Amino acid sequence: MMITNMYKYNTLTKNIFLILCFGLFSINFAYAHNIERNKIEKIIEDFLIQNPQVLKSTLDNLELSLKKQKKQLAIKLLKTANNPIIFQKNADLTIYEFFDYNCGYCKSVVQLLIDTISEDTKVNLVFVEYPILSQDSYTAALAA
Description:
mainly alpha
């Protein structure tokens, strides 16, 4: 998987590099031959129209890269936020329970989670406030 991600990153870098080089080449060529800016833009546009796979591949790789960054930021946020946690030594699994104070389902799941960590001492439990149901949910989260 790491090799695939590295390949995609290298492909993204290569595609961006090619587009930039093509643009810089066009600009240098234009200055050398006194071609107007709109003609340069037309050259680049024609290239992208004739080679849509370059643009599609670059955008696909950018999307994957952004998703990966968002996931890494979310994990970092969860690890550094001041969320209530039931911490057990030697835990090899962490359960993040996203909840809203006004959610009946969230309340019904708590006992199951408590039972789970009572039975398995290698599980941490982190409660993450996620007040999305109402303004009262947000107020309760602030008060907590």
